[in-house]
Amino acid sequence: MNFSMWRKALLIIPRISKEEWDELDLISRWLIATRAAVMVMTIFSAVLAGIFAFRAGAFNFWRWILVTIGLYLAHGTNNFLNDYTDFIKGVDEDNYYRAQYGPHPLLHGLMTKKELLTYAGITGAIAAACGIPLVIIRGEWSWLLMALGVIFVLFYTYPLKYIALGEITVFIVWGPLMIAGGYYVITGLPWDWQIVLASLPYAILVTSVLFGKHIDKLKQDKELRIHTLPVVLGETPARWLMTGLLGISYLLVIYLIWTHFFTPVMLLILLAIPTLAEIWPILSNPKPDEKPAGFPDVWPNYYVAAAFHHTRRFGGLLMLAMILDTTVRLIWPDFWI
């Protein structure tokens, strides 16, 4: 077991040769092939669902565990299928963006197509094995939630991403579906539209990461007729829309404080504003042709790197603030009502 590689793969997408790959254990290979470093965003969604459930006094640990594992493995399944679909369609050839920022299981010869589909099938089966008991126990609308999840896993790469619906899909999945849907399944309580609204700041953060990625590869996607939203809008409008969305994520939290859904403790998220200011020069200017001096060694990730940096900061503060907010609600029920 290569524990150091596990840690590395959870923090970054490591570049690796075929010889190094052959020496790795199964878990290391899975973490690298699924791009586990970015899947922390799914863990955040599951944790937020759990915090909302705890706040409602209806937290069920075992349901939460199943939700978390199921969502994480569903995300991994989607990443496998994403690489497989783009590979067989010829998208990832000729030094395409995906092959530049990290190892591609098929393009770099790390796996055969059969091996990748086997990994995807087993990962997806375990995800389903987590979801099916929850659907049976919870019933009602949980069947629809799982069905939507399956549809998005199978069809995000094609056709949704190709017809400017990829960003909207991610927004729905990482907010209303994972957080509000997770809350619904964990607690057994009725569907709560306030939880849906409260899930949107984090949904925006995750969507901003995808936006950044699609702006980074806009020229290549345009040539390949992959009509992501940045391709449809153009680079400058896409950058400004992405920046505007990040601002809205702060305003939504402030609105939820004003309506007394959250307490003023949630203003802790404002500590992420310096990080937003830090990435502002990146978001407000066109992408340079070459990696800027001193820029982290993640090129050609540029806008996506900036968005991910902000998402980690804001997301971490959001989670901490929600834990404190829930604690205040439990200790002082009459505060800010």
Task: Describe the 3D structure.
With 337 residues, the protein is mainly α. It has one domain (3-331): Farnesyl Diphosphate Synthase (Orthogonal Bundle). It is 69% helix and 0% strand. It contains 15 helices and no strands. It has helices at 3-11, 18-22, 26-33, 40-55, 61-88, 97-101, 113-138, 142-155, 166-187, 193-216, 218-223, 229-233, 235-258, 273-283, 303-331. Helix 8 runs antiparallel to helix 9. The longest helix is centred in the C-terminal third of the chain and has 29 residues, at 303-331. It is globular and about 60 Å long. The N and C termini lie far apart (51 Å). The model has no long low-confidence stretch (mean pLDDT 92).
Describe the structure in brief.
The chain is mainly alpha-helical. The chain has helices at residues 3-11, 18-22, 26-33, 40-55, 61-88, 97-101, 113-138, 142-155, 166-187, 193-216, 218-223, 229-233, 235-258, 273-283, 303-331.
The total tally of domains equals 1
Classification by helices and strands = mainly alpha
So how many helices? 15
Question: What portion of residues belong to β-strands?
Answer: under 5%
Run of helices and strands: HHHHHHHHHHHHHHH
> Runs with pLDDT <50, length 5+?
none
CATH class: Mainly Alpha
Total E-strand runs: 0
> What does the overall shape look like?
globular
Give me the CATH fold name: Farnesyl Diphosphate Synthase
Give the biggest sheet.
Answer: none
The helical percent reads 55-70%
Write the layout of secondary structure elements.
Elements: H1 3-11, H2 18-22, H3 26-33, H4 40-55, H5 61-88, H6 97-101, H7 113-138, H8 142-155, H9 166-187, H10 193-216, H11 218-223, H12 229-233, H13 235-258, H14 273-283, H15 303-331
